[in-house]
Amino acid sequence: MLGVKITKTGRIYFLLSIVLILAGMNTRTNLLHLLTSFMISLWVISAFLVRLNVQKLRIDLYSQGETFVNEESIVEYVFRNDSVYNKYGISVSDKTITYDFSCLHIPAKTSLTVSHRQVFSKREVKTWDKLLVGTSFPFGFFRNEEEYPVKGSLYVLPKPLMVKTPLPILAQIMAPEEGVMRKVVRNADQHFAGLREYTPGDAPRRIHWKASAKAQQLMVKEHEDEIPQKITLIMDTSEESLLSFSSPRFPNQLESLISLTASLLKDFSQRKLLFRLVFSEQKQIFKEGEQHLREALRFLTTASLDNQDMVDYSCILENCPPNSTVILISSRLGRWMEKNVERFSSIPIQLFLVCLERGPHSPDVEQGQDVFSVKEMEDGYICLERCYAVDE
Question: Which parts of the chain fold into alpha helices (H)?
């Protein structure tokens, strides 16, 4: 119950005052009457001061907004005392991150900042809406507790690992001879679409030197028929995939699956590829860059086990851009492949299947499709290996 409550110390003090009052009445000693009157006055004044000590006090909370699992994060609490009186002995309980602390002195008309560093061991979303503030100043006879509204959130993102053995598709998408990190599909007829400013990674042969001299900055030619390669990464969080078998290597298959997905996403982002993440009801649009990666990692932070027997990705795959790449990530691919690989062999996409473990009874794969599994996932890196590919 919030508000002003009498403490154990206050009860003992009050009972002692009553005993002295009764003693003064029996002995008719004026000194005892004066003493008990003073004690009762302190007791009453304490109830008033304990309320006054938290009035006109504002609290703002600031967090980094995002952090990674097992990395240090900083949360700041800013106390603003708008009163003309000093504040003493303010205690704060932050139940969101289970952190309690005290401010011994907050001067009048000033602010005080308290910083807290904490490491979070699992992916989650921390959301603040209130803090519990209490005080027993000045004598400890009463305690006043109030809830102060605050706003803040912190995404504890899954930490991506370094991919030591990237998928072969990346070698096809990259064009090292041009110095660019993106493959483009060119039709026979290329129509000039316009000029844009040069960005790092553009091929030197695409620079329009006359326009660059006129604009006094590098300008690059663009064509209508240049289509960036797009990657759709699908993460299968269905119960059928995650609960159908146990694995000594991956006791928590959902977390291992999310770590694998996050690692591939970071690898794509560093290579400046257009990608999107799809799982359960979540779906991104094709983008690139650090901000898009952070958005994808936020999606992964909220990922949970999908209670459907098997997620139907047919609509997603059938609506993928022609000649695009689709990477399906699952803990085990046997049953999914049996039901879907043959079905999607006619769709003009390049399908890659990536799993934690191959699993028993996995059928053969049609030509042009590849299956990979995790060889190692430790010490900050992940290593993939090819399970089989009939086109080799």
Answer: 8-27, 30-52, 168-173, 209-215, 239-243, 253-270, 290-301, 314-318, 334-340
